[in-house]
Amino acid sequence: MRRKLRLAVVGIAIVKYAGLALGAFFMLLPFAWMIVSSFMSAAEIMARPLRWLPAELQLRNYEALAAAIPLGNMYANSLIVTISITVGVLLTSSLAGYGFAKFHFPGRDILFVLVLATMMIPFFVVLIPIFFLVRQLGWMDSYLGLIVPNIVTAFGIFLMRQYMLTLPDELLDAARIDGASELAIYWRIALPLAGPALGALAILAFVYHWNSFLWPLVVIRSRELATIPIGLNSLRVYASSPEVINLQMAGAALAIIPVVAVFAVLQRHFVRGIALTGIKG
Questions:
Q1: Structural domain boundaries enclosing 101
Q2: What is the pTM of this model?
């Protein structure tokens, strides 16, 4: 009986991991083909049936891409903007989340509900008011215009608030008895303990703003401040021409490198932060 039960458990585990492996294969397949096709000629990419390996590595695809758009400058702009926004999101979300989780003040719950309600408002609704404010402040076509409107997010506040609720109040009270200020408690105790949630939020914020297209398209006027999505979009006028599809694949392959690197570094924090967030309501 025990042997049959053990075999059943092993069989279930095999089926589970086989299903996960199959799902991962189909999820990664488009990315693998994108990378391989970045070394193909345009004719090979457009060939049917689909080709999975290039007849000859076309390294000149990347050279042609660099000649078509200022790739290095756009990469630098994307890194500056995305890293700045991510750091700002982590700071504002952790501060607000700590306040909502550990302070009791009149109207706290109502204010938190209002913050959550903003998550249901489509960005297109607030696009014009934000654009008007940025223009009035003189931030058009500048790093400030790209960064500042994005450093506060309702989702980030919600995520950090839910995680901060799991921190024991006794630990914070002990620090207050020892004479620590609220800012010191937040910086030295709450923030280090919230590492998993910060890691999860950092990945989400970095990926979202690295791929952001609409807001940079609205704010940017000069080619010098163009980000990677804007640069790749500049090839759109040739989208119907097979001569540039290999450049688009090369650009897409380069664009995912920072995202993969960030996820590789913070993936353990991401999994733990998502798993633990929401335990306490």
A1: 61-276
A2: 0.86
